[in-house]
Model the fold of this input.
Amino acid sequence: MPRARRSRRPRHSAQRRGRQLDLDWEKLVKRYVWNDERTPYFTRVANLSRRQAHYELFGYALFVGVLSGVLSVALLQGGAPHGGTEGVSLYAFTVCCAAILLGATQHPWAAFWCSSAPLAALVYFMFYGFHSNLGLLDQIVLVVVMLLWLLYARRVVAVAHALPGLPGPAAPD
Done:
């Protein structure tokens, strides 16, 4: 018995035939980049729901955890210009562990330890200086980014402290 021949066109193109591909950038940005529920960065801490606070703490923990984890491993290879980076690598590892705890428990002390990373970076720059390849503009940008991160870190600690009293379900879906 002969087999039925399959069409060489993919199935999904047959479903989309006659329909134009709709790229609504505003809808895509609101869905993946700026979602009022999942990225409430301009909402006051007192106005957050428990779900929004959870998403904000988890996002910060993910960012700080990955950054400090990579930094702790890279510094073990002797990547700092001043050498002797065991202490800095150990600190970065403790920040990575605190980020894991922050993501899992949303504890305020874990948020505080994770939020100390930009201050530690500024202290490092003050004592050891910058890499010799960085120009003055690069150094200024780096310090400004650390200061902005430090300002945002204060919000993360405030969110972690306010989390138990926020309205909404205990954990997101």
